[in-house]
Prior knowledge:
By secondary structure, the chain is of the alpha/beta class.
Amino acid sequence: MPTNDIDAAVSALLAGRLVAIPTETVYGLAADATNTAAVASIFAAKHRPRFNPLICHVASAADAASFAILNDTAKQLTDAFWPGALTLVLPLRTDANISDLVTAGLDTVAVRVPAHPVALQVLQAVGRPLAAPSANRSGRVSPTTLEHVQFEFTPDVAMGLDGGPSQLGLESTIVDATQDRVRMLRLGSVTREAIEESLGEPLALVEPGKQPIQAPGQLQSHYAPSAQLRLNVRHPKPHEALLAFGCEVPAHAGPMANLSEAGDVTEAARNLFSALRTLDTTGASTIAVMPIPEKGLGEAINDRLRRAAAPRP
Ligand code: TXA
Ligand code: MG
């Protein structure tokens, strides 16, 4: 990555423009979180409903503390998981310099420190929080390469930094850390088990329909390719594309992608969005998905697949 690309990205961000940045989870469409006009252009580019708040990305937990309040439990989580794929929803400080559009007017803010070196370099150089949703049009499959981003947005909408394929491939896990008892809001790249082990207690459950906010990432239909999805398929039909998992793959003449021949859920998570995009480009009207175990990262993979398969609005 030539340094001047990062310099150009930093100048663009400080001038209120959008920049697609690589992170270890998925590529983000970043804007200066303190600049309302810049943040507004994220919503416009993504066709994202304005009631859906954005994640603020910062270079360190100390930077997060300048606009969010971290209690002891939150600090324990940042010590254990930052930089990394855990997003904390925290109380917003009353003196915070964050655009109301970022938080959708809530008194909480979602924050994470990404683990990608390019993202960290940009954040350090910008010296301000960057609001960055996944760099896809709202409701669609998240991008894990710069090519995916360029398929979603033309360069006049956002310049992009290439940081290679996202290592994890699934969005961050989001927890509500506003209270002592932490609650799971969105499954993601950090497993429930890892968080529970770090906290030494189970995460509180959020009752369905009692989410603090209704956000697309938590809406039933999301992460959707153009093709329909059929889940837990052991016998794909000839006209279907097959999203396989493991080494025992049924004979299939049509298009096929295997998430992990070794049956490894970490590898499968990394390949999921990219494989959905590849199978979508074959023009198949349905993608049949083999069963994926509901353990570890399998829980988050199945969450994304169920939303991708849900009836579309
Ligand atoms: O891995 C990721 O998290 C990626 C990369 C780019 O960091 N970002 C990402 O952002 O997935 P996005 O906008 O696609 O998803 C952010 C989610 C949304 O579901 C939003 O509703 C939720 O975070 N969120 C943001 N602020 C919140 C808040 N104050 N309370 C509850 N949920 C919030
Ligand atoms: Mg998203």
